[in-house]
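Late entry, evening session. Most of the bench is empty. Finally got around to the prediction I had been postponing all week. Sequence below, unchanged from the version circulated by S.P.
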Amino acid sequence: MAAALRDVGQVREVNQDHVFAMTATVPREGSDMLLGLFVVADGMGGHDGGEVASQKAVATAVRHVLAELLAPALDGDVGVAIRPLLVAALQDANRAVWDHARMHGSDMGTTCTMALLLGRSLHVAHVGDSRAYLLRSGEIRQLTDDHSAVGRLIELGQLDPQEAREHPLRSHLFRTIGQQPDVAVDLTSSMLGDATHLLLASDGLWSLVEEDAMRAVITTASSPQTAVEELVARANAAGGDDNISAIVVQLPS
């Protein structure tokens, strides 16, 4: 089961986040396979540029995966190389946003974090600072690294993650979708093992709700829908100074 929710928050007038969540059963000889595709994109840029950028990135990336993976899988062909596929999907999204921005004279851009669940394997492709988390054995683990000045300081051991929430450079991204004609895509793959939940979140959520609080909400909620509603409510209660997006996936046991 999965649920997605985006909210404008308490301060912004326009919601520049976009989300996508889909689960499907892919027919295979012997036993069918679960496929899940989940995306969070957090747009940036004036004059509705961020809203357009995030929508275009999600649409382009999802269309690429559906065409290159799901369509062949329906014919029984699941032999596509997953990792290059996801990288290509986000690079296609980057080119689509870049071309649109050049055409309209805009400085638009967006983050984009895409998670593909295929059977018992999880693949996450990522640009920006929208995050993916995996919950296992009562603990929450961040799967993505923020492409921000603060994220780099944390990676180098020069800044504590808790201090990052109040750092003046916390919103300064050095890598996003649509800001350059080409983009490097981070990719991580893992087996689910005994993991129970997957969370995708824009910074409007993770910057206002502590990881332990997110974990507690997700592990005690009666359903993914209840979980995303509570997560968004907590971010709004903490100030809601940005758009808020969350996708919660209850993983198969």
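Two things to note before I forget:
The first helix runs from residue 49 to 74.
The CA atoms of residues 128 and 147 lie 5 Å apart.
Will write this up properly tomorrow.
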